[in-house]
Design a protein that fits this description.
The chain is built from 11 helices and 10 strands. By secondary structure, it is α/β, with parallel strands linked by helices. The protein has a single domain, classed as pyruvate-formate lyase- activating enzyme. The chain has a 7-stranded mixed β-sheet. Helix 8 packs parallel to helix 11.
Amino acid sequence: MNWDETDQIDPVRRRARGAVSNRTGRFEGVSHVRAHDGWDIPEELPPIRTTVRMERPRSVINYIRSPDLPFDRTLNPYRGCEHGCIYCFARPTHAFLGLSAGLDFETQLVARPEAPRVLAQELRKRSYKVAPIAIGTNTDPYQPIERDQGVMRACLKVLQAFNHPVAIVTKGTLIERDLDILAPMAAQGLVRVGVSVTTLDAGLARVMEPRVPSPKRRLAMIRALTGAGVPVRVMTSPIVPMLNDHEIEALLQAGKDAGADAASWIMLRLPLEVAPLFREWLEQHFPLRAARIMARVREMHGGRDYDAEWGRRMRGSGEYARMIATRFRLVERKLGLDRAQPSLRCDLFRLSPRKGDQLSLL
């Protein structure tokens, strides 16, 4: 049952979690609220644990038409994300499952073990036209449950068999496990990886991204990937006013030193349920700065917590947003991270042979 815990939940119960509450999803007509039963008997509620359910998808390639994104299709091995990043703009998607964007998003996860089989079926369709698939743009494919479920690795094996280009975004060091697949694909120009390094401050990272590897470990991951020939983009996202905005230059320098050959940034986005969750988190962890941070956020979004307009939603507008963009552009150019990157190759795509297929004589 999904409990609507609108008050801040005991920190002991939600240890190493991002959200501090668990409001009912926006599409639900009924809320389940915890109430005292009137008996003077002490009752300790158990810690909130991670649970995983399975889903059998009918399709796995999601086609999108967002004009401010550099890709037109994505794939999600999982729904929800145990990393628990408080700022995650994907949190509202859990409402479509009848769950909360709060603690449910990071504790009630959905794995899609049939995704590799369905992916292969979709790639074999006569109507399919090859273009890079983006993985990790919604929830992280290398979150902790991938170690046991292996859905991402199985999807990569399918993409490798078809010589299909893929762009991966992750904070999870488990990607190093898959270098045996990624390195040969990179040698063919079939893969790029984006690694998100939000801050170099381990303490700040621990409260913003409670179950994500430390910044130091993520930089080591960039070294491991680039050392194996996999091109990496360092992603300084999101930029949060008065929390990590002063680190832009240091973040790009650290990414460059680790081997990254490109960089990108996104301003803090607070769509739908993310806004109240982020405000609660600020009041708990940074009470003296909370009002000023939100004032700066609203300044960039026309007085609102978020502006979903194409072209503005990921950058904001106004003087502060322009200043951040200018700083990023200058250091990006200085470090040589602004050079155009080669497009992922689509000309190598082939239908992977199936058991029983007649082999070509040519």
